Amino acid sequence: MRFSGFSVLRNALTGQSGWTPHWRKASPKPAYDVIIIGGGGHGLATAYYLAKEFGVTNVAVLEKGWVGSGNVGRNTTIIRSNYMLPGNIPFYEFSMKLWEGLEQDFNYNAMVSQRGVLNLYHSDGQRDAYVRRGNAMRLHGVDAELLDRDGVRAIAPYLDFDNARFPIQGGLLHRRGGTARHDAVVWGYARGADARGVDIIENCEVTGFRMDDGRVVGVETTRGPIGAKTVGMAVAGNSSKVAALAGLRLPIESHVLQAFVSEGVKPLIDTVITFGAGHFYISQSDKGGLVFGGDLDPFPSYAQRGSLSTFADVTENAMALMPMIGRLRILRSWGGIMDMSMDGSPIIDETPVDGLYLNGGWCYGGFKATPASGFCFAHLLARGTPHPAAAAYRLDRFATGRVIDEKGVGPSPNLH
């Protein structure tokens, strides 16, 4: 069933009785050409592009819970391509271009809103750093505008420019950035993959790998053994745990990243704003709640909840940037398990175990990367070679020294 204005009108006139489930409740077959572990955004996008772009349809996506129960449903929904290093800019710009045509591509309303991403600066040094970043972006064909104080005021007049803790001097604007509805992205990819023959198997946890002469030939699951010619891991914060089942130790630590939403208010923030003097970012949802977040919890954890110390730090940053929101009540918070790599950049590569491939190490960049991550991982699984946009995301870069340290803080995952 395709969505259209006509289908909406027809169902409105027939008691909404014509809608069908978005995807089948598939049961596992004995074997597949490709098994993808992880039914989040990256796993489902991989399955979708495997079927759509590369003609590989004998595919199973195995999810230990329900589709979208992991990080893809636990983020602040920001999409952007305002990176600086050559290894990152082409990839995230590729992802941004896929975002721009995503809803038409899989015929589903993912609520992609290119409302702009505005990074504020508060000192001459930050301004110079943003000049460098903006020039790097423009050299790679990404839009970037350096704004002075008046330019920022024209976009966000509600900010406290002079009386806040760190007066605002200007900002770097990435107009094509914005937000998307995280749940709808998952549902759209699941629906599109299922329509092309992919089996989406929920409540099916992988408990081990089946090996034959050093090669992965399938997986052990809570629903029985399943054979496969190729297995791909896209399990975000659980990358290290799943890889350990195959005897691998990854250069990844898992940390919790908290996010928060306030009570609903009238339209206030019509863009995404990030704080230059601290790690804080905020936007407003279509329901009126302010959605915001900040730093990781500094210690490794697999809990989908965070600490009060980080909560306090995020709210302090919020007050330093926008004192006017201090009287709003926070309705809820949640935590996603970030798979933090040693240089803060992702990994899309084959592993030392034959037949086993890795998509992980997404750190803060997982949601915005979803379309390109799926496309590039599908390319790798189908053709056995990296996609040009993800050529720098090799697993061995930590041994060869070709790291992609976007923040310049060295090999310390909790600082990325």
Task: Explain this structure.
By secondary structure, the protein is of the alpha/beta class. 28% of the residues lie in helices and 26% in strands. It has ten helices and 18 strands. The strands form three sheets. Strands 1, 2, 8, 9, 10, 11, 17 and 18 form an eight-stranded mixed β-sheet that branches. Strands 5-6-4-13-14-15-12-16 form an eight-stranded mixed β-sheet. Strands 3-7 form a two-stranded antiparallel ribbon. Helix 2 links the parallel strand 1 and strand 2 (59-62). The radius of gyration is 21 Å and the shape is globular. The two termini are 43 Å apart. The relative contact order is 0.18.
Mean pLDDT: 95
- DSSP summary, beta strand count: 18
- Summing up helix and strand content along with how strands pair, one would put the structural category as alpha/beta
- Estimated radius of gyration: 21 Å
How is the quaternary structure best described? Answer: single chain
**Elements, N to C (H/E):** HEHEEHEHEHEEHEEEEHEEEEHEEEHH
Helical content stands at 25-40%
Distance between the termini: 43 Å
Number of helices: 10
Write a brief caption for the model.
The chain is of the alpha/beta class. The chain has helices at 5-13, 41-54, 89-106, 124-139, 149-155, 182-195, 239-244, 308-321, 370-383, 397-400; strands at residues 31-37, 59-62, 78-79, 117-121, 145-148, 170-174, 178-179, 199-201, 206-212, 215-221, 226-233, 252-264, 272-274, 281-284, 289-300, 330-341, 347-350, 356-360.
What are the main properties of this structure?
416 residues; alpha/beta; eight-stranded mixed sheet; 10 helices; 26% strand
